[in-house]
Amino acid sequence: MARVMKDSGIEWIGEIPIDWECTRISSLYSERNTKVSDKDYVPLSVTKQGIVLQLDSAAKTNDGDNRKLVCKGDFVINSRSDRRGSCGISDYDGSVSLINTVIHPKRNVCNDYFQFAFKTERFADEYFRWGNGIVDDLWSTKWSAFKRIGICCPRLDVRIQIANYLHINCARIDFTIEKQKTIIEKLKQYKQAIITEAVTKGLDPTVKMKPSGVEWIGEIPADWERKKIKYTSQIMRGKFNHRPRNDPRYYGGSYPFVQTGDVARAEKYITEYSQTLNDLGFAVSKQFPAGSVVLTIAANVGDVAILNFDACFPDSVVGFVPNTDTAWNYLYYCFVAMKNQLIKNAIISTQLNLNIEIIKEETIPFPNFEEQRVISQYLDEKCAKIDDIIVGKQKLNAQLIEYKKSLIYECVTGKREVG
């Protein structure tokens, strides 16, 4: 028999079962606004994964005496729109920064049920709809508005039943997702091992070997050379690390401007880019031709890809135009194989940085051009098969994540019957 539904009168909730009610959050929770010091109460971080002991990566302030008290069982939510989804029930007594809103149940409300409701995307939309701020992308929602938001409130026993159901089923989904992530990581390691083996040992397991004298390479086939990267390519560094505006001297040309993020996102070939130089107002004084191997040397050091078009880059990217005796595809795979070596040579300041002079002096195994081509073709085929499996598992995880979101929303709004 179909469940009888009614209009909740609240847009983000929609229809609810006929015997459910809705109420305002203020009828269920009160704000905890006690100011404390992190000297007395352990600092906590409010993350998308919930409330945790303060992360090493969290921004620290000198105002540790001006924080909010959190008691075990309190629900904490970050009020800023750029921290969307950062919330949860605290398992700790502690303190959080003032940007967070701390609330505690007025009575036994089944905190877990409301935590699931508060973590839905539709609630997040509603939460920030009640906020205000100077710009749309930096919005905050205060308790004075938060407490007025409507929320589903079925009978207590129904809330408990839904919370228990979601804990069990979400745990199953999370287990499957983590299992797929583990398999994906192992496939990536396997792919890395295949690439390293091919570019350092070749494809003939019976060939005579000799020491390369380079730690990350080990032995190489006896008829191979070793060559410093500076002798394999014309090396260029991107130029643009600033954005001049309203100055006609900086305009001219419409070459794609490819940023470090575009390199990181590329599977192998860069086929998309963020903006063009005309959009940004940069001078066209550096251009990497199609077929260049490009390498990031700051932040995510060692990300590598091949350009499918002429482009310009910021100074955090180095481009390599292979010489006639160097196959660009083989050079790409050499950079993939030596990524850990590049990271090892990077300098840590505020972020990782790799000196271009160090890259030039690095040595790679160097077979003749025809063997480079054969190795590259072999790796293209092997890596494509592994990538297909990885993509399939990533799609499965994306579907599971969307299913979990839908499951939670449908359960906490009564659209899916539990039990």
Overall description:
The protein is an alpha+beta fold. Among the domains are: 150 residues, DNA methylase specificity domains (Adenine-n6-DNA-methyltransferase TaqI, Chain A, domain 2); 142 residues, Adenine-n6-DNA-methyltransferase TaqI, Chain A, domain 2. Helix content is 34%, strand content 23%. The strands form eleven sheets. Strands 19-25-23-24-21 form a five-stranded mixed sheet. The chain has a four-stranded antiparallel sheet with strand order 4-12-9-10, covered by helices on one side. A three-stranded antiparallel sheet has the order 5-8-11, with no helix packed on it.
Strand order of the biggest β-sheet: 19-25-23-24-21
Summed over residues and divided by their number, the pLDDT gives a mean of 89
What name is given to the CATH topology of the domain at 5-154? Adenine-n6-DNA-methyltransferase TaqI, Chain A, domain 2
Based on helices, strands and strand pairing, what is the structural class? Answer: alpha+beta
The total of beta strands comes to 28
Question: Based on the structure given, which CATH architecture of the domain at 5-154 is correct?
Answer: Alpha-Beta Complex
- Proportion of beta-strand residues: 15-25%
Outline of the structure:
By secondary structure, the chain is an alpha+beta fold. It has helices spanning 111-118, 121-129, 143-146, 156-201, 260-265, 277-280, 328-337, 339-345, 356-361, 369-412; strands at residues 5-7, 15-17, 22-24, 29-31, 35-36, 44-47, 50-53, 67-70, 75-78, 87-89, 94-96, 100-105, 132-135, 138-140, 150-152, 209-211, 219-221, 225-228, 233-237, 256-257, 269-270, 275-276, 293-296, 304-307, 317-322, 347-348, 352-353, 363-366.
